[in-house]
From TrEMBL:
Name of the molecule in the record: Gnat family
Organism: Mycena sanguinolenta
InterPro entries per record: Acyl_CoA_acyltransferase, GNAT_dom
GO molecular function, one term: acyltransferase activity, transferring groups other than amino-acyl groups
Matches recorded under Gene3D superfamilies: 3.40.630.30
Pfam families to which the protein is assigned, alphabetical: Acetyltransf_3
Domain N-acetyltransferase: 25-203
Amino acid sequence: MTGLEYNSTTGEPFLRLPAPFSSFIITPPRMADVARSVEIMNDPFVFKWMGRSTPYSVDLATAWLMKVKAQTDVAVEELRNSTEFGPVSGCPVRHIREELPDGTDVFIGDVGLVRSGWTEVLDAEERVRFVTENNARAAGDPEIAWHIGYYLAPGYNGRGLMTAAVKTIITQFGIPQMNTKYIRSSAFEGNHGSLKVLQKNDFVMVDTLVEHVRVGDEKTTLHLMEWRAS
Ligand SMILES: CC(C)(COP(=O)(O)OP(=O)(O)OC[C@H]1O[C@@H](n2cnc3c(N)ncnc32)[C@H](O)[C@@H]1OP(=O)(O)O)[C@@H](O)C(=O)NCCC(=O)NCCS
């Protein structure tokens, strides 16, 4: 059964993380998150693992948030218009927020469960073919390849938060409302925290692409990880 709830004041959907993380929720992105996302992404601890060679700007963040908000808006609409419990084509929530005692919340990270973009496939034609075929699959198709990606603001690391966020979005929305059976992910060599988050959520390493991804002048090794429903 889905764990999706709705904010009684704003109508915004959200997933709540389980104890001891119950002050953290996952909601749709908001355009007000631009400044904070720039701050988080440019923190050296986060930046080094995100595959960027130039600083993350307000313009890039604005364009990214418009894109992902458009995706979550579609899912929110699908849910609003559905008369019965049925599969939806995408996930309506991805931004992790900490609820504060005064009733406000603060954006602290991202956990996106989206259709795979096969970004590790270097041949552009092949990549477009995979993406087009996958995006054409109807809501609930068990063959859809999903992708999960995430980051957390420094200061929130190392307490099990992302392990819980990944588990929550898969078990409380992906499986019950998108019929998710197959998820792909990846992490750069040396990103022990990210690999551990995936392994603790039953992902297994299926390939290691040596010096595969160009980041600035360097080529980085990428571990490919997969989760399949048992
Ligand atoms: C990777 C990241 C999301 C992990 O989030 P987190 O909430 O700190 O992870 P968790 O606390 O759930 O940790 C899961 C496991 O990884 C371990 N771990 C976390 N960070 C680690 C690190 N930097 N080095 C080694 N192990 C680490 C934890 O100890 C835990 O293992 P344990 O349960 O055996 O103790 C976070 O560090 C981050 O945002 N990093 C920068 C961005 C990034 O790398 N994004 C992913 C790109 S693929």
